[in-house]
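It is worth pausing here to work through a concrete case rather than discussing structure prediction in the abstract. The textbook approach is simple: state the sequence, then state the predicted structure, then interpret. We follow exactly that order.
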Amino acid sequence: MFKRYRLRDYDFKLVFLILALSAIGVIAIGSAEESLQTRQLAGVVAGAFLMIVISFFDYTWILRLNWLMYVGNLVLLVAVWQLGDETKGATRWLTIGGLRFQPSETAKILLILFFAQFIMKHRKKLNTVVIIASCVVMYALPWILVWKQPDLSTSIVLLAVFCIIMFAGGISLKLVFGAIAVAIPAVALVISLALQPDSDLLTDNQKTRVLAFVNPQEYETTYAYQQLNSVTAIASGQLEGKGYKNNEITSVKNGNFLSEAQTDFIFSVIGEEFGFKGSVVVIVLLFSVALECISVARKAKDVAGTVIAASMGGLVAFQGFFNIGVATFILPTTGLTLPFVSYGLTSLLSLFSGMGFVLNVRLQAKKSKQ
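Step two, the predicted structure:
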């Protein structure tokens, strides 16, 4: 389970980037919703401790439990479906022994770990119909459970993660380009059908969100309200920002025009209070975390390590892009948190855990490629 590692192989750069993002999150949450700042700080401390501990566990040993992870993940998602707490029309939360958490967040990490081992075991047959079909079916089961919560945003992230997993695992580029050629028109067709009045592919709420993005003027007092206010907040920050916890009456945040400012629209708070400079810092840190994970993936000693590091980097990059895209109104509202920055202890601890495995992949990297 444990190995001897060299201190110089530890990726302190990645740790620094993650903690810097988390610190910005704690600061921003203190302004968005001060009552939650202490809890977020406690989550960061607990998450950092968990990340460091996991980083010293041999990931190849832990991956032997991959089927236990997969079945446990399915059990939790089914439990949400049957016993979960309903909030704002969606059932995404589960309470066990007084602990309330969101299994769809832990699913992202557990699926990465499961498929890292599965692909490692079947890497020589990865491009066969049987293995690809097996991967699709096994991924589809938890994905459908998340979709039915309903949780469209996390479903989209899970699809992106699956694509990264397969690509990092070594799927043939011919199959990749073939899938893209089929997927683009298929997605366009599905979206078109989903927006039809009699379609049940999307809930009424999800349809309206998309329509509000396409025609915000028609929904400026309802579904487009938050995003329009978000853009106003970011733009008003200009270059330097209005200042941390400012008392300006022109502040969008101070006027309570942003709901869920501590989660979905935390980037809006950062943009308003720290301006363009603060926003760029957050984007650069997110991009740097993703790049560092990709760097670790390239040095991994095996396919499983490559899948873990690349998928975690892709998860941070993709989810970060979606959150910021919503805040800046270049994407429809999705409800995704900003990795390591938004409030949400399940998301925070899950991401820290995943990064712990990335750190261990780096510790066991091929010495010849360092």
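Step three, interpretation. Strands lie at 85-87, 90-96, 99-101. The longest helix spans residues 266-299.
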